[in-house]
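Predict the 3D structure for this chain.
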Amino acid sequence: MVKFSSSLDDKQGERRNRQIPDGFELEYSRLAERQAPSNRPVYQQEASPYEKKPEVVQPQIVERQSIQQDYDTLVMDEKPQIRKPLQFDPKDNIQFGVEYKPDSKPPVIGNNYTIRSNSIIYNDVVIGDNFRTGHNVVIRENTNIGDDVLIGTNTVIEGDVIIGNDVSIQSNVYIPTNSVIEDNVFIGPCACFTNDKYPVRINYELQGPRIRRGASIGGNTTFLSNVEIGEGSIVAAGAIVIHSVPPFYLAIGTPARIKPLPDHLKVPNKL
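Done. Predicted structure below.
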């Protein structure tokens, strides 16, 4: 599975009249070859784990065509094998591969997955290993999800979303178009993110949130469009976030007040 730092192409959906934000494709390229979990950058368990950050090798940007083989073949031990359509128990009412346009490609998923009843996954979705969902999950087209990701019950992920590795998204979460969630992120139940600054009033470039690696989002939180939640930061339960949160800061209250994160909370998420 591709690691977090690789990306979807700058592809416009026919159902939406909008543009991908500038730099979205370059900054979050998800097309580099996936690394095995043992080779992915992880937090180092040290006395002060955020004082010295692990070095991360910059991803190699490759062309969109390189991901085409994911839709046609599954490479095992360097020998291509034809991918067979996945079969689910009809009583579970799982729709894996919803065609939203004629030339869309079936979704691709890694090993050891669990998809629970009434979930819907559109075409042009790529998902890594050890993927789990709750019930009634919706994942729209052009979404790219890494390894070891949990998507909770009743969660909706709109199209053109990037989710990294080791991410836990709880129940009843809404993630809009053009959102980016990096590695090792926790999102609590009923969190609501937005991407339209002036809903249905004027034309606005849709800009979802950017949740940096190691951030932790509490339950029942609300986020205005185009906010960035910094690396290792925490958003307290019930907060309404109207401005970006710096790395290793705490956002609390309505509207959220931002203050430095206490030292004892400057530790990695244990997902």
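The chain is about 5% helix and 25% strand.
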